[in-house]
């Protein structure tokens, strides 16, 4: 094997090493974004369910119709979001309630880790959950 061949092997190994590091960076960043999305979705689901518990009891007792008190539903959903422990990726949340449903939209961001060496970007995440109150069978 000549000196010229040894240099080309070194360059080839360097290229493969850089590709492996880039692939590892992409894998770690995607895993973090999937994990953060799952946490945001769980939080949005919990908040929507908390809001859906704000049933207008007087109306239900009087007519048997299940409807929400929108202002109470929104407050309960926001209180649920504020009480959650896993808030690392969450930026903000939008809560809207009507007499029929509660919708919680959570916005989040996950910064790059290993890919942060190449770019200062981040993943933008958005999850939504809607809960509807109903009578128990």
Which terms would index this structure?
about 140 residues; alpha+beta; 3 helices
Describe what this molecule looks like in 3D.
51% of the residues lie in helices and 20% in strands. The chain is α+β, with helices and mostly antiparallel strands. It has one domain (3-131). It has a three-stranded antiparallel β-sheet with strand order 1-2-3, covered by helices on one side. Helix 1 (3-51) runs antiparallel to helix 3 (70-83). The termini are far apart.
The arrangement of helices and strands along the chain is HHHEEE
Helix content: 40-55%
Largest sheet: 3 strands, antiparallel
Assembly form of the protein: single chain
Q: Strand arrangement, largest sheet?
A: 1-2-3
Please tell me what the overall shape is: rod-shaped
Radius of gyration from the CA trace?
24 Å
Task: Estimate what percentage of residues fall within beta strands.
Answer: 15-25%
Distance between the termini: 81 Å
Give the integer mean of the pLDDT values: 87
- Low-pLDDT sequence parts: none
Number of H/I helices: 3
Instruction: Report the count of strand segments.
Output: 3
Please describe the topology of this protein:
Elements: H1 3-51, H2 57-63, H3 70-83, E1 90-97, E2 102-111, E3 122-131
Helix pairs in contact: 1-3
Quick structural summary:
By secondary structure, the chain is of the alpha+beta class. The protein is built from 3 helices and 3 strands, in the order αααβββ. A 3-stranded antiparallel β-sheet has the order 1-2-3, with helices on one face.
